[in-house]
Structure formats: structure tokens, C-alpha cells
Design goal:
With 733 residues, this protein is α/β, with parallel strands linked by helices. The chain is 38% helix and 15% strand. The chain contains 26 helices and 22 strands. A nine-stranded mixed beta sheet has the order 5-6-7-4-3-10-11-15-16, sandwiched between helices. Helix 8 (294-311) packs across helix 9, helix 14 packs across helix 18 and helix 15 (516-529) crosses helix 24 (683-695). The longest helix is centred in the first third of the chain and has 30 residues, at 130-159. The radius of gyration is 28 Å and the shape is globular. The protein starts with 11 loop residues before the first helix and ends with a helix. Mean pLDDT is 76; it is low at 1-136 and 627-679.
């Protein structure tokens, strides 16, 4: 076809009209686009381009020939809208469409409205009518309004850039066990692009490449004794250890690594991991066994973050350190001591009086609970003890008093954030969902939820370094790209090579939170009732779950495979090959797996919890049945309704951030959530939902979900803007 019509004088109208109706289906959309792309780009006029776009984007939807969609009574013309009558109207199974007219030259939205994004279901059969002009006008107004707002924010950042320090135990790509590492790796870059001075401070677990020794050292407190004594200055100095700071400049962010023997992990190179980094070594000897000195290690990190903010000289701000007016962004319980150290140690010395602390909760299940006897190890005055004290209730009705780092961070931080609106509501709703800290969360005014983004440069099927040339794809050729990747994955891992068989996948940590046990219980029934479906799982963690995963290939030869490991390359490859991504989490603060999946055109099947409900709607995927959506909840309190809106955040500048909700609002929030609680999922619910999803494989709704997911911007652009507005309230105080 290309050889026949490759000359500049070729009649592209003839190319368009020669495409038979039977060829116009989903599998041919990308092929037609790719065959004409070079010719159109080089030789076609705008009218010819629009004509070709019409064929690719609306051929089967208006003629009623798409797979699974019967013709209507009025769709008797075999060539759909491609007739000589420019005013003809055709009734398709979805909508009435007129032949497109040329747009007015002033319409900046025409490229999208006219179907330039080939294959986009929302552009198929669109008519350039007065209503279309109205919609375009609304888009233009919204775009203009957003543009003004963005320019205003950037101008404000240029005039008064914030100085922000992210403190975390993880930072991708250097160290990562979950979503927190991705956040600390990508969010600082997005804030730096908006004009702010941003630094991240994390432990140096290994000898990373490309780091520079700053020649800066600090002597910080390290007390392994549990005996409460009044130490003299000399005794305190004797209990100090030296830390060094290494530095890297990455995409506008100052990356600082704190080096001390207590942070270093064992060097164990393997074939899958030649650099020798073992992620189980971050917090303990194994996923279930923590290091006995974790409280000392994390206290040391908090001290180092404060010191480096006022001592490390940075060329980007004239050779000066960030100084004492900074915003510390602490992540999870590991960094919960930082606000206490600022308040009870440095503020008493008239230091860091202009600093503020924003605390981001990534997972309330991990709280940093320690015996009361560990308090002397923290080098904090007795005045800080009430913030750490917490009474834990056991199942037998007994209670004990212990230290709870997460509770202290909730009480002492200036701004409380979490990674989704749904999770912010969940953890405040009940002791079960808040892991016994729901009361403290409500007393502190609740959490402000901002959904995470993904690294659009790393997770991009068009330019994925782990895919070959034929495996890379966009919305235009997603069908062909995914079929190619699926064939490769099937052949590589011993599945039956059938690219047209629906492939389900699971990627994640193997533990009870992720609901892997429920999925494995449901899998036999799914594969029994869907004799062509296949399944692949990738993850590591709990030993029992790893063993169950490894047995899949023997239980279901050629149809299921479990990889009890984690490999970034394999995660990318599976995302690009799978048709469905199953996320059956018992609770999920935000979740990045479903975002990665939708960016790659993989349909997510998710549990109705936390951030999964915030990100996966009915137009993007499937939610496990018999559950109530958070998005459908209504609250009687106006303050609760606006709790996570930008207007509410902007209003924090005039009041204490820790009092977003009044007592009445808190009661209304609790009552509303308790009255509309979600049902727990089980293996039966997973079976029903997955079978329903498989029943829609390769149908119009299936392709609509794929297109919608790939069209949506899942990057950090919008979340970073929300983070900036929230942090600005602290900076202006």
C-alpha cells in the first residue's frame, strides 16, 4: 500500500475510499494510521488529513460494524459516512453524526475535537455544530483560566521560591520498597520545575554511582542505652557518632545522602540484581524481622536532615545553605521525630524558628511502636514524652502504654497530608481502618489528600527502554504493540502462545495488605470458567505467599505463572503485555500499580478502597462488586465536603493548619462514613468481577477504557500543583 501511494502526487482521497468496510475495526485502526502517517505528514493538505482521520477514528462506530455491535436499521450504507453527500446523516449504534466541516481558524481546540487523536472514542463521529463550538469555547475558557492560574503561581514562585527539604528512608531509583520511594523520587523534581529550591535527604545504603563527597561531617547523638540518666555535656559528646554527606544534582533537585555504618546494607550481587542492592535490608534482616536499632537509625536521619539544611552550601542559591526558614516534608513514621527535635531541641535554642513541618502519611499500618524504655535513646527532653505516649488496646481487653512515633508526628506537625482523598477519609473512619489512630487523626483535624502521580518519563509505553522497537506503542498502535509484547511474555514464561487470549496480571508486594491470598484463592475458579484466560504474577515478600506463587506453573501449566521476585524490567514488560491488572488490596493508601497499568493501556480491576477508588472510575476499569464507592458518599458538613479542595487549602493561611475541622464537623464525618461503610471483599467477589471483566474483552467498552486510560495525564503535573499550594500556606506563615 505504501509502495503504491508513496509519491507526492498520489490521490490520498483514493487511499481513504479504497479501505474496505470489513477492514475498519479496532485491530486495523492503528495499522491505517501508521500506513498513512508519513504520507500525510509530508504531502497531505489539511482537508485530506481530516478525511483520513475520519476513517481511522470513526469508521466502525458510525457504520455499526465494530466487533460486537450490530448494525442498526438506518445503517444500511456499507460505506458509513464516506459518501459524496457532505450533509448526509447516519444513525450508528452510539450516536448520530454529521460529516465534519472545516473548523474556524480561531479554534485552538480543533485538533482534539476533530479527532486528531486517532482512535479516541470521545472524538468519533463528532460534528462541527454550534454545540461543538460551545464545548470548544468552554474548553478554551477553562484552558485560559488554568493558564492564568499557572502563570500566577509560577510568577509567585519566581518572586518568592520556597525552600523545601524532603526527608525519607527511601528515594527511587536509589532505594525503594514501595510507593513512598517513587513519591520522594519524582515529586521533588516536579516542585523544582515550578521554581522552588528543593532538597531530599535519605540514607546512603550502598555505594551509589555519581555521588560527590561534600567533605561535610556532623557529630550527631547516638545513645543505645535504655537507662534514664541526666547526662553531662561530656557524656553526651561521648555518645555521638560521625555522619558524612554525599551529594548529587538530579534534574534540579539537591539529592543528599547520609552515610553512616548503621545505614549500609549487605552487598549481595545476583544475576537479576548485579548492583547488589537487596531491598529487604532497608528495615530489617527480613521483611518480618526488623533491626533492633531502627529507632536510633531513624533518629540519626532526622538529626542529619536538620543539620544539612543549615550547613550544606549550595551553588544554586549563591553558595549559601538553605538556611533555617525551610519546610521539612517528612514521610511516614521513620521521620516522625523531626518535628519533635525542631520544637523541643532547636526552638529552645532560638534555632529554626521560621521552619515548618508537613507530614505525609503513606501507610497508617506502619507506626513505629517502641517500648517506653526506648525514650532515653531519642535525646529528647521530658516535655516531648506526652506527644509520643500512646495506649494500645489488645484483643483480650488489656492495654499497655508505649511510644508511637506516628502519633507524635500527627500531633506536632504543622500540616498533615496523605496520598489520596479516599484514604484520608478511611483512616479517620474507624479504629480498624485507622489502625487505632483514627481518634488522633480526627483530633488533629483530619488529613489533606493529594493523589500521587507517576514518573511519565519512566512509565511511557512510547519510549520504554525495556521494550523493543515493535513493543513500544502509543494510543495509535496500542493493539499491535500489546499483542507483540503479549506473545513475547507468553513465550518467555512458558504460557500458551496465543496473543488473542486475555492475559491477567498482578504486580506488587506479597503480603496480606495487597490481598494476594484472596486472588490466589479465586484463581482456580476464574481459570476453570474462562478456558482461554491466562495469569501472570510478579512480586516478593511473605515466604508462604511466595511459595504459593511459585506453584502456579505446576497447578495450571501453560495458563498461569508466578514469579516470586521483583524486577523493574519484568514489571514494565508485564504492564505492556497484560490486558487486565488485578489489584485486590484490603486497603490501599494510593497505589501506583493501577496508574502504571492505565498508562500502558491495561485495564485495572481494583478493590473498592482508598486511592484505588479515587483513580479508577467506571470509565477506566472495574471495581470489585458489592461495595459502595467513596466517590458516591455525601456529607452533611460543608467543611468536610471541602476538606480536600484547593479552596480549603488556600484558607489555611489565616488559621491553624491542625484545625481543619470543628468538633461538629468531625462528628458528622465519622457518622457519615460509618453509615456508608464499604463491604469487605472476598475471593467470590473477585471471581465475579474478574469474569465480568473478561466477558467484555475486546468489546467497545474494553477499548474505550483502554483509550481513556492512555489519554489521561497520570504524571506529577497536577499533584505537584496541589502540593505547591498546600506548602505555600506554611511558607507564608
Amino acid at each position: 500500500m505504501m509502495a503504491k501511494h508513496s509519491s507526492p502526487s498520489c490521490d490520498l482521497w483514493m487511499i481513504a475510499e479504497e479501505i474496505p468496510t470489513s477492514f475498519r475495526d479496532h485491530r486495523s485502526i492503528a495499522f491505517v494510521a501508521s500506513c498513512t502517517e508519513d504520507v500525510v505528514r509530508t504531502h497531505a493538505s489539511s482537508s485530506v488529513v481530516l478525511h483520513l482521520r475520519r476513517i481511522v477514528s470513526s469508521s466502525s462506530s458510525v457504520s455499526g460494524t465494530r466487533r460486537g455491535m450490530p448494525r442498526t436499521k438506518d445503517s444500511s450504507h456499507t460505506r458509513g459516512p464516506f459518501t459524496s453527500n457532505s450533509n448526509a446523516v447516519f444513525e450508528g449504534p452510539w450516536r448520530t453524526c454529521h460529516r465534519r466541516q472545516d473548523p474556524p481558524p480561531t479554534c485552538v481546540c480543533w485538533n482534539r475535537c476533530a479527532g486528531v487523536e486517532v482512535g479516541s472514542s470521545r472524538n468519533r463521529g463528532m460534528t462541527w455544530t454550534s454545540s461543538t463550538r460551545t464545548r470548544c469555547g468552554s474548553k478554551m475558557k477553562r484552558a485560559a483560566k488554568n493558564g492564568k492560574q499557572q502563570r500566577r503561581i509560577k510568577a509567585r514562585a519566581a518572586e518568592d521560591p520556597m525552600r523545601i527539604v524532603f526527608v525519607s528512608m527511601e528515594c527511587s531509583p536509589w532505594s525503594k520498597t514501595g510507593g513512598m520511594g517513587d513519591v520522594v523520587g519524582a515529586l521533588p523534581i516536579a516542585l523544582s520545575e515550578r521554581g522552588h529550591h528543593v532538597m531530599s535527604v535519605v540514607p546512603m545504603y550502598n555505594q551509589y554511582n555519581g555521588l560527590v563527597d561534600t567533605q561535610l561531617t556532623s557529630m550527631l547523638y547516638w545513645n543505645s542505652s535504655e537507662v534514664q540518666t541526666n547526662l553531662t555535656e561530656a557524656e553526651k559528646n561521648a555518645r555521638q557518632v560521625e555522619v558524612q554527606y554525599f551529594y548529587a544534582w538530579e534534574k534540579g533537585v539537591h539529592r543528599v545522602f547520609v552515610d553512616n555504618p548503621c545505614f549500609r546494607v549487605e552487598f549481595l550481587p545476583t544475576a537479576e540484581n548485579p548492583e547488589g542492592f537487596t531491598r529487604e535490608k532497608l528495615y530489617g534482616y527480613s521483611p518480618s524481622t526488623e533491626y533492633p536499632d531502627n529507632d536510633l537509625r531513624m533518629s540519626l536521619l532526622c538529626q542529619a536532615a536538620i543539620e544539612v539544611a543549615r550547613t550544606l552550601q549550595l551553588e544554586t542559591i549563591g553558595g549559601e545553605p538553605l538556611g533555617e526558614k525551610v519546610i521539612f516534608v517528612c514521610n511516614d513514621w521513620h521521620t516522625a521525630l523531626l518535628p519533635l527535635q525542631l520544637k523541643y531541641v532547636h526552638h529552645t535554642k532560638e534555632q529554626f524558628l521560621g521552619s515548618r513541618v508537613a507530614f505525609c502519611l503513606h501507610n497508617a499500618a506502619y507506626q513505629g511502636r517502641f517500648p517506653l524504655t526506648h525514650f532515653p535513646r531519642l535525646n529528647l527532653p521530658d516535655a516531648a514524652l506526652p506527644s509520643l505516649l500512646w495506649n494500645s488496646s489488645s484483643s483480650n481487653g488489656c492495654s499497655c502504654t508505649m511510644l508511637n512515633w506516628l502519633k507524635a508526628a500527627l500531633v506536632e506537625s504543622d500540616l498533615l497530608l496523605t496520598v489520596s482523598n479516599g484514604y484520608a477519609l478511611e483512616v479517620a473512619s474507624s479504629p480498624q481502618k485507622g489502625f487505632e489512630l483514627d481518634h488522633e487523626i480526627r483530633l488533629c483535624g483530619g488529613l489533606h489528600g493529594i493523589v500521587n502521580g507517576i514518573d511519565a518519563a519512566e512509565w511511557n509505553p512510547c519510549d520504554d527502554e525495556f521494550l523493543d522497537d515493535k513493543g513500544r506503542y502509543s494510543l495509535f498502535n496500542a493493539v499491535e504493540g500489546k499483542l507483540h509484547n503479549k506473545s513475547q511474555v507468553q513465550e518467555e514464561y512458558g504460557l500458551q502462545v496465543n496473543p488473542y487470549a486475555p492475559l491477567m496480571a498482578f504486580i506488587g508486594r506479597l503480603d496480606q495488605q495487597k490481598g494476594v491470598d484472596l486472588l490466589l484463592d479465586a484463581l482456580p475458579e476464574i481459570l476453570k470458567r474462562q478456558d482461554t484466560a491466562q495469569f501472570i504474577a510478579l512480586g516478593s515478600g511473605n515466604c508462604c505467599l511466595e511459595n504459593r506463587l511459585s506453584e502456579l506453573s505446576s497447578q495450571f501449566p501453560g495458563r498461569a505463572i508466578g514469579l516470586a521476585q521483583f524486577c523493574t524490567k519484568k514489571a514494565h514488560k508485564i504492564n505492556a503485555a497484560a490486558d487486565y491488572m488485578i489489584v485486590p488490596s484490603r486497603f490501599e493508601p494510593c497505589g501506583l500499580v493501577q496508574l502504571h497499568a492505565m498508562a500502558y493501556g491495561t485495564i485495572p480491576i481494583v478493590a473498592p478502597t482508598g486511592g484505588l477508588l479515587d483513580t479508577v472510575t467506571s470509565t477506566l476499569g472495574f471495581q470489585i462488586t458489592s461495595c459502595t464507592k467513596f466517590t458516591e458518599r455525601t456529607y452533611s458538613s460543608a467543611t468536610v465536603t471541602q476538606m480536600n479542595t484547593l479552596d480549603c487549602v488556600n484558607g489555611l493561611a489565616e488559621s491553624s493548619v491542625s484545625h481543619l475541622l470543628t468538633d461538629e464537623d468531625t462528628d458528622n464525618l465519622l457518622t457519615s462514613i460509618e453509615n456508608q461503610s464499604t463491604d469487605k471483599i472476598d475471593s467470590k467477589a473477585i471471581v465475579n468481577t474478574v469474569l465480568d471483566a473478561l466477558g467484555q474483552y475486546n468489546t467497545e467498552p474494553f477499548f474505550h477504557m483502554r483509550e481513556k486510560g492512555m489519554e489521561t495525564d497520570w504524571s506529577w503535573k497536577k499533584p505537584a500543583w496541589k502540593w505547591e499550594e498546600a506548602l505555600r500556606t506554611l511558607w507564608n506563615k
